[in-house]
Amino acid sequence: MFLLLDKPEGWTSRKALNVVQKRLKVRGGYEGTLDPFASGLLLVAVGRYTRFLQFFAPLLKEYVAVLELGRETDTLDSEGEVVAEAPVPDLSEERVREVLRGFTGEIEQIPPRYSAIRISGRRAYDLARRGEEFTLKPRRVFVESMDLLFLEGNRLGFRCRVGRGTYVRALGRDIARALGSVGHLVSLRRTAIGDLEVRRAKHPHEVKGEDILPVEEVLYWMDAYHLTGRWAERFLKGGKVPVDAPDGLYRVYVGGEFVGIGESSGGYLKPRRLLPV
Fold it and tell me: Whole-prediction pTM value?
């Protein structure tokens, strides 16, 4: 069903998944790739449940980052080459908090050049590695909260809770510039996906079969809906069925067994994604 992994710094997300697949002798997938330099929560679906990973994308993700001021790198993290340097002004915690508040709500963000965004069918990071010139357009992203954790010398730590498509590396770049300098992230850790927290996660080398979580615990924000008889049969064949339920997504059960996710709209429940028979 689902696993919560604590991806180590220096690992690719794919490596973390490969270790788990080999340990548990299962196939799987994950939602929300973490950069190799980053650590933290990686949500893995096992076997047939990979088809439900798409439903986690809208959940807010929480990160803890450390931003170093004075130098900006091409990757916006500690693995890149320095491309800009600037003095670091005298900063107070009050001033930093004021700047951080300016990055909450819906904001415009230019993604990093080293990102998986496609430009004419090619990944931006491939173009960047080849030294090709290209332009990334700003896009709207959502930042629910931004909190200062510490300010020490030319480094500051912050915690943010962000929506899909938000690059924390780009947030670091823009925060540094708003503070009158330049900067890059020296550490980044994902601490939560929705209400799923990294403190419950296991290192990939420590994961066991009993760590697999049931669908009810992971798709916690969806209410359950139980179907019986001909309505259950129709739903499992892809048809919509009449329901007395508010509009929204539901975990659907037949005979007490989870069969997939349905969407209620206008008094009808239709399948969004079903487990294969």
Answer: 0.91
